[in-house]
Design brief:
The complex is a heterodimer. Chain A contains eleven helices and two strands, in the order ααααββααααααα. Chain A has helices spanning about 1-30, 40-55, 60-90, 95-115, 145-165, 165-175, 180-185, 190-210, 220-235, 240-260, 270-280, and strands at about 135, 140. Chain B is mainly alpha-helical. In chain B, strand 1 (about 165) and strand 2 form a beta hairpin. Chain B has a two-stranded antiparallel sheet. Classes of the chains: A mainly alpha, B mainly alpha.
Chain lengths: ~300, ~350
């Protein structure tokens, strides 16, 4: 029983970074109607930036947070440039061309990372005060897992407030539900799109920084994380942030349980979830009674 | 295609045949001439590494043609076509010492890929658009993971020492003989696809691509057309996979990597997915470019991404659309440039 509880907590902590990446992807989809292939590359760049700021040796908590901030801010900039330089030019083409444009961007960013950081994987040390674990009775939980869950709560809460309680959030929701009408009402949809793209990329960068201490940072992260976040967005329903939260948690927990109890299925949980959802409920989990936190209509 | 563009093609009316050269109206002949010239010229000009590269290029030509049946003809975006390439390749790999006739190997590989594509298309029948693209991607990833987990497939090392076999007493181990085999198969594929493209089935695929709702209203059975097109595309990808396995002599999980599915879309796009020859041009250009870049630069992906972005910006309808793009810029559209 205690083992099951620690497995569950571990799964939730695994799901959080997936949620943060996927929420960026789903936000961008909601407003721009673009499935951004380069999203995994944003994550990868975030991890590289963070590892570069932290450098060798074990960082203080302040340095770690600074690195995460640099990653998020840097990626906001990259996202803004990508929107202006690539996606804005492709709005009037059909979605296949846009998809290929984002694939080109993925290759470009992967190549750029290779040119800047080389082919040798980088690693980032854990903050010493987060490296331990807490034991309560027989339940053992890593400190970093708890930190991750707290970060997830904060990010989710901030996104909720931003989208539901601020004027800017209202314009985002307006543009994603009907761009033409929003423009007719005087909303500068281009600016909203630019902002959302930067925000989405920043979320990916932040997730990259959070994951940097847990895995080796190399170019291979871009496609892997890209596909994982696609899977979550599909399971959660395109454009639904609440849906991606639930999907990310389900997949994180399933993966953690499989790894512990059914190792032969480890690595598959995500694909199983997607296959089931698409075959049984193509619109994803959204539309079920989930937290009302969505940016796109489900009928598109 | 938007309504505006649809009306534009409709307004063009019957095309004036005198504007085209006569042989353009004999599409099968066109294919035969191109393939025959390539078959004759390549082994006399290239040898060694470049001849091997030429064989790689024609297998990619077949692969890109298979993908374009979906992408360009029927308007289905799939990010998992590497699965069917892999199905063809692994089938030939598993058959390695039981089937010595390379043509038989290719046929069996094709059948397996076609069956898989048919099953997949039937099961995912209700799903279209971006969701379908994602489902194909996921399907591809599952198969890719399975290649590591199913023991007979050899895990990371894959299946090695796949023989090329022999026909008419010629050992295909010699690249020159294998070239003739590969180009013949490619020629047959191109001829067959040329026929399909001009047939009623080909026209209904385009109707589904342009406007599925109108096609349905005209009595075209859209779902059936989608399934048939997906199966045909999968089968052609299977042929490419079988050729690839015989040519390379090894089959590894890399064949099923999703980047392969991405690359082939890039090929179709570079050449132009709306024209018959687009994927052929795209596959040859991409293969040569890739080969050159991997030898000469540190991060080839950077340059491939850059070139792809330029193509997307400047010639979104592909290299083959360069004539009509320039003509449109000068205000004199070429009739029948879009098919």
């Amino acid at each position: 029983m205690s083992e099951l509880i620690s497995t569950l907590i571990d799964g939730i902590a695994q799901g959080i970074p997936l949620f943060i990446v996927a929420s960026g992807l789903t936000l961008i989809y909601g407003v721009l109607r673009v499935l951004n292939f380069a999203h995994g590359a944003f994550f990868m760049l975030g991890a590289f930036l963070s590892a570069t700021v932290v450098g060798k040796g074990s960082p203080s908590a302040g340095l770690f947070l600074l690195a995460a901030f640099v990653a998020a801010a840097g990626l906001a900039l990259v996202g803004a440039v990508a929107d202006v330089g690539v996606f804005r030019r492709l709005y009037h083409h059909d979605h296949m061309i846009t998809l290929l444009g984002s694939y080109a961007l993925l290759l470009l960013l992967e190549g750029a990372a290779q040119l800047i950081w080389g082919n040798v994987p980088k690693s980032q040390s854990q903050v010493p005060s987060l490296a331990g674990s807490i034991t309560a009775g027989k339940i053992q939980v890593a400190d970093y897992d708890i930190f991750m869950i707290v970060v997830g709560l904060v990010v989710g809460g901030l996104l909720y407030v931003l989208l539901q309680r601020t004027p800017w959030g209202k314009t985002i929701r307006a543009v994603s539900s009907d761009q033409l009408m929003a423009r007719g009402l005087g909303i500068r949809s281009r600016r909203v799109q630019l902002g959302v793209f930067a925000l989405g990329a920043a979320l990916a960068g932040l997730a990259g920084a959070l994951m940097a201490p847990l895995q080796s940072v190399d170019v291979g992260l871009a496609p892997t994380v890209g596909i994982e976040s696609f899977a979550i967005v599909i399971v959660g329903g395109l454009g639904s942030i609440g849906g991606s939260l639930v999907a990310a948690l389900i997949i994180g927990i399933a993966e953690s349980i499989f790894t512990r109890y059914v190792p032969s299925l480890a690595g598959f949980s995500m694909y199983i979830a997607v296959a089931l959802v698409l075959l049984l409920r193509p619109q994803g989990l959204s539309g079920l009674r989930l937290p009302r936190l969505r940016t796109a209509r489900s009928d598109t | 295609m938007s309504v505006k563009e649809f009306d534009k093609t409709a307004d063009a009316g019957p095309q004036d045949p005198s504007r085209h050269l006569k042989w353009r109206r004999l599409p099968s002949l066109e294919v035969l001439v191109v393939v025959a010239v390539a078959a004759f010229v390549v082994p006399n000009v290239f040898s060694g590494a470049t001849l091997f590269l030429s064989i790689t290029a024609v297998t990619y030509v077949v692969f890109a043609m298979g993908v374009n049946v979906l992408l360009g003809w029927t308007g289905i975006s799939s990010f998992g076509q590497a699965s069917f390439l892999g199905a063809g390749a692994y089938t030939v790999g598993l058959l390695e010492n039981h089937v010595t006739n390379p043509l038989l190997g290719v046929l069996i590989g094709t059948a397996v890929a076609a069956a898989m594509a048919f099953l997949f298309a039937v099961l995912s029948n209700r799903i279209t658009g971006v969701e379908f693209a994602m489902l194909t991607l996921i399907f591809g990833q599952i198969l890719w993971l399975l290649t590591f987990r199913i023991p007979p497939l050899g895990g990371e090392n894959g299946i090695t020492a796949v023989p090329r076999g022999e026909m008419f007493g010629n050992n295909f181990f010699n690249d020159k003989y294998y070239w003739y085999f590969a180009i013949s198969v490619t020629g047959l594929v191109l001829l067959g696809l040329r026929r399909v493209s001009g047939s009623a089935f080909g026209l209904s695929m385009r109707a589904v691509r342009d406007d599925a709702l109108r096609a349905e209203a005209l009595g075209i059975r859209v779902r059936l057309v989608r399934i048939a097109s997906f199966t045909l595309g999968g089968a052609v990808c299977g042929i490419a996979g079988a050729l690839m396995a015989q040519q390379q002599g090894v089959v590894t999980p890399d064949t099923l990597n999703w980047t392969v599915s991405g690359e082939v879309l890039v090929m179709c796009l570079i050449g132009g997915m709306r024209s018959f020859w687009g994927p052929v041009v795209g596959a040859v250009v991409f293969t040569v470019l890739n080969w050159y870049l991997f030898d000469h630069v540190k991060a080839p992906n950077f340059y491939i991404g850059l070139i792809l972005l330029l193509v997307v910006f400047l010639l979104p309808r592909g290299l083959l659309s360069i004539r009509s793009t320039i003509a449109t810029l000068r205000g004199k559209p070429v009739p029948g440039a879009e098919n």
